[in-house]
Amino acid sequence: MKKLQLLGNITPAQFLRDYWHKKPLLIRNAIPGFKPLLKLDKLAEAAAKNHVESRLVTSVDGQWDMQHGPLTELPPRTQREWTLLVQGVNLFDERADALLREFRFLPDARLDDLMVSYATDGGGVGPHFDSYDVFLLQAHGKRRWKISAQQDLSLVEGMPLKILSNFTPDEEFVLEPGDMLYLPPHYAHDGVAEGECMTYSIGFRSPSFQEIGEAFLQFMADSIDLPGRYADPDLQPAKNPAEIPREMLGAITEELNKVRWDEEDVTVFFGEYMSEPKHNVFFTPPAKPLVVGRFMETAAKRGLKLSPKTLMLYRGKHVFINGESFAVSRADKIVLDLLANERRLSGEALARASDDVLEALYTWYQDGWVELG
Ligand code: SIN
Ligand code: CO
User: Fold this and answer.
1) Which one of 26, 62, 84, 163 has the lowest number of neighbouring Cβ atoms within 10 Å?
2) CA of 263 to the centre of ligand 1 (A)
């Protein structure tokens, strides 16, 4: 793989080997000439919406306050020390989506979203740590980052957001537009706006094992098959009627031990789970959907692309899209893997698609999962 300016002229392999999960990396001029993708009014408009996750953070004399969206009113721009954070900007802004996809040297199953923060002078969310890796791209204005390798991650109690009780920075940098800072999980940091500024966070997903386990058992509940019912033809008279008979528990344990899963079950579960859109994601079907014939003609000319909201993954013969899974033939797999990786299909690629694939694509188009190119 080639060296990326985005990573400070090292290859993704070097980045993953030396920094990922290991140590911070400051990249000056990661994106030369970077211009912010959206202005405060657009961000504020998004923050006012129900289905957009947003927060407003203020601090007055060391007392932090956090308000969750929808946010219909923001403090004036002339007021110091407030921060507006908007999650999932990639879901409604095509250019933010394209920026997030610059990070596809990492698998889609790990990429989460692009969060945009706007702060007035002195604004920030306080010294804290995150449980995930993050790339902090300075989009507009300046922000002073202080970071620390400290092990003490104790938090101030009773705060509406995570604030480290003993933050002792060991490095400090001022980031300007186009500069980027990578931080591994649990790395203490504090970013303070110097004048008005905007910072974009490229965030990652790493589900907890507990969350995965619970979801997996729910998935298995739909697929287990345990015929029959408990019976005890050799039952003996009960001495202590309230005591569960040992033989009864033995028989139940034996039966439950028949619940088994293999790699295939785990693959289908995990693919469906990781491609499931977040609860606040709603697809917008086309206002005037083309009839199937017109759709095919137009798609042959213009190609198709996935909606920025669509999560599409695959593994082996299984293809996952927005929480649904399909086992597909070898020929269909070529086309669908291409769509998943490129997030678009050219007219030529479509010409090679089977009727099954075309039918699925038309349904996805009607649902707003796929759009005309
Ligand atoms: C911010 O953009 O204000 C905060 C990002 C972070 O510290 O994780
Ligand atoms: Co953070």
Assistant:
1) 62
2) 38
Burial of 115 (0-12, 13-18, 19+ CB in 10 A): buried
Backbone angles phi, psi at 264, to 5 degrees: -60, -45
> Which bin fits 178, alpha (ψ -120 to 50), beta or left (φ > 0)?
left
Cα of 355 from ligand 2 centre, angstroms:
47
Residue nearest to atom 1 of ligand 1 (CA): 117
Digit-coded pLDDT (tens) for 155-214: 999 899 999 999 999 999 999 999 999 999 999 999 999 999 999 999 999 999 999 999
Domain encompassing residue 81: 5-204
Ligand 1 atom at minimal distance to the Cα of residue 130 = 8
**Per-chain mean pLDDT for the chain:** 96
Same domain, 133 and 268: no
Residue 351 has, within 13 A of its CA and on its CB side, a CA count of 6
Residue 179 is assigned to a structural domain of this protein: yes
- Summarised one tens digit per residue, pLDDT across range 55-68 is 999 988 878 999 99
Domain boundary among 204, 227, 248: 204
Q: What percent of the chain has pLDDT over 70?
A: 100
Instruction: Centre a 10 Å sphere on the Cβ of residue 328 and count the other Cβ atoms it contains.
Output: 21
Ligand 1, CB cutoff 6 Å, lining residues: 83, 117, 124-125, 130, 134, 189, 191, 199, 201
211 and 190 share one domain: no
pTM equals 0.93
Residues in the chain: 373
